[in-house]
Amino acid sequence: MSRRAELPRRRFLARALGAAGAVALAGCDALSDSQWLPGVLGVGERLTRAAQRFALPRRARAQEFGEADRSPFFRSNGTALPANPAYRALAAGGFADWRLEVGGRVEAPASLSLAELRALPSRTQTTRHDCVEGWSAIAQWQGARLSALLERVRPTARARFVVFHCADPKEAGGREPYYESIDLEDAHHEQTILAYALNGAPLPIANGAPLRLRVERQLGYKHAKFLMRLELVESFAHLRGGRGGFWEDRGYEWWAGI
Amino acid sequence: MSNKRLPLYLRHAWPVRVTHWVNALALAVLFMSGLNIFSAHPALYWGKSSYTGRGPALQVTAREDGGEVVGVTRVFGREFVTTGVLGASAGPGGTVERTFPSWLTLPGERWLAMARRWHFSFAWLFVLNGLAYLAYAFASRHVARDLLPSAADWRGIGRSVLDHLRLRHPVGEAARRYNVLQKLTYLGVIFGLLPLVVLTGFAMSPSLDALVPGWVDLLGGRQSARTLHFLAAWLLVAFVLVHVVEMILAGPWNHLRSMVTGRYRVPAHPADEQAR
């Protein structure tokens, strides 16, 4: 074949490649909007969860840092001040009337004041907070070990997850407060605490006062702030969007280890 | 017809061809979804956290200037106006605040949750495909035979640099083998850049960070790892650009065919060319 004859073919191929690229781009966006593709891509999340659970020893601890590594200030992300009159009233009273309700699939439901939580076995840890957006900040947290609280309320054999119900209304005119969930393996982890202090001072409102979750081997959105109620459940399918958390219901992974 | 040309020979074995194209697809999706993920917090830092008292090394942002949206990129505190490319680019009804142009990201709009799904699914494809390639490349001696430079290669490195600068490509028997710069580049990408991009990706996972507490500090800390991940991704793009340009200069259809069907036609010497 002569070189001249190849030229139009090449031009055609080049154009076809360009057009295919444009179709592929538009196609990817159409796929993202489709019902089935996010499900297929969810295979990645299940693989990741399985692989990380397999690779990571149950007791493996997140890295802890020294005082010198602490960030000058700890960024407040998401809700800084819940637009919830009941919460505002509790805050105005210094959370003296605040209580953490613990129920669901437990043998001994409980209602604890901040003082009672402070009396539980505690842990102090300087850890790095990794936001799903990409930034990190390092701070020292002090709080009650969730495992100690669970020992007290005694989850039943059917309990599999702890659901964290929060005070900050996110959408639907305040009818949809933030919520999150973790499984019992993470709930019993040594570094999983209900934090009431940040850098040695009572937890500020912007960072989730009076109590927030720290679950150090997962991303920031798992660390629910403004805790009001813990619920032990067998499944979170019946809760709200059914995916186990406010952001999970909006397409984020329930397994936030990556 | 082409009976005067040198014959076709099998240049690339099928496992190399398959893993090459799967890798190309996976890297394209990873790069574009990665840029979308970056857009959720378009700043890079050096250190263990983002808030160390030092500012970001790189920041892409936008500001209003007389009713116009202006894209701004700050590199080590120096500010550059990058409207149209970084910080602000074409959107519905004019220029809008956007870290990267829509056509470069997946999905086109800022959508962190969906971008993460694309990224982590194709990361699996990328890693499994890469492992399959490595298993084949070592078992078949592809690495030792085709990629490791020989003593003669090392001696001829100066000549190879000159050839590249003059855009001259090997012909005849020499074209059957990779040249030394090509070998070193492929080795650098396969055993340097690609593992680095995986490792720095792992370093951003809070779960994997707990595997051996502190290992991330070997990369300079988690935020340094994120910066390195971003740099490695762009170095891969640079490699792909040079790779494609070199293939076009050295005979695009011959090279494309050899990576699709495996068959490559050895380019004849110019002397043979004239005789034809």
List the helices and strands and how they pair.
The complex is a heterodimer of chains A (258) and B (276).
Chain A: H1 3-33, H2 37-55, H3 85-92, E1 100-104, E2 110-112, H4 114-119, E3 122-130, E4 136-145, H5 146-153, E5 161-171, E6 176-183, H6 184-187, E7 193-198, E8 201-202, E9 212-214, E10 227-233
Parallel strand pairs in A: 1-10
Antiparallel strand pairs in A: 1-2, 3-4, 4-7, 5-6, 5-10, 7-8, 7-9
Chain B: E1 8-10, H1 14-38, E2 43-44, E3 58-65, E4 68-75, E5 78-81, E6 88-91, E7 94-97, H2 112-139, H3 142-147, H4 151-155, H5 157-165, H6 180-203, H7 206-209, H8 222-249, H9 252-260, E8 263-265, H10 270-275
Helix pairs in contact in B: 1-2, 6-8
Structural account:
The complex is a heterodimer of chains A (258) and B (276). Chain A has six helices and ten strands, in the order H-H-H-E-E-H-E-E-H-E-E-H-E-E-E-E. Chain A is of the alpha+beta class and 258 residues long. Mean pLDDT of chain A is 91; it is low at 1-5. Chain B is α+β, with helices and mostly antiparallel strands and 276 residues long. Chain B contains ten helices and eight strands. Chain B has helices at 14-38, 112-139, 142-147, 151-155, 157-165, 180-203, 206-209, 222-249, 252-260, 270-275; strands spanning 8-10, 43-44, 58-65, 68-75, 78-81, 88-91, 94-97, 263-265. A four-stranded antiparallel beta sheet of chain B has the order 2-3-4-5. A two-stranded antiparallel sheet of chain B has the order 1-8. In chain B, a hairpin with a 2-residue loop joins strand 4 (68-75) and strand 5 (78-81). In chain B, helix 6 runs antiparallel to helix 8. Chain B is globular, with a radius of gyration of 22 Å. Chains A and B meet through helix 1, helix 2 and strand 4 of A and helix 1, helix 2, helix 7 and helix 8 of B.
- Give Rg of chain B in angstroms: 22 Å
- Strand count, sense and closure of the main sheet of chain B? 4 strands, antiparallel
Low-confidence stretches of chain A are: 1-5
Order of helices and strands of chain B: EHEEEEEEHHHHHHHHEH
User: Quick one: how many beta strands of chain B?
Assistant: 8
Note the total helix count of chain A: 6
The secondary structure category of chain B is alpha+beta
Give the largest chain-chain interface (CB within 8 Å): A-B, 53 and 49 residues
| Biggest pleated-sheet summary of chain A | 5 strands, mixed
Spatial strand order of the main sheet of chain A: 2-1-10-5-6
N-to-C span of chain A: 54 Å
Oligomer: heterodimer
Bin the strand percentage of chain A. Answer: 15-25%
What does the overall shape of chain B look like? globular
Ends distance of chain B: 11 Å
Helix content of chain B: 40-55%
Helical run tally of chain B: 10
Structural class of chain A: alpha+beta
Helix content of chain A: 25-40%
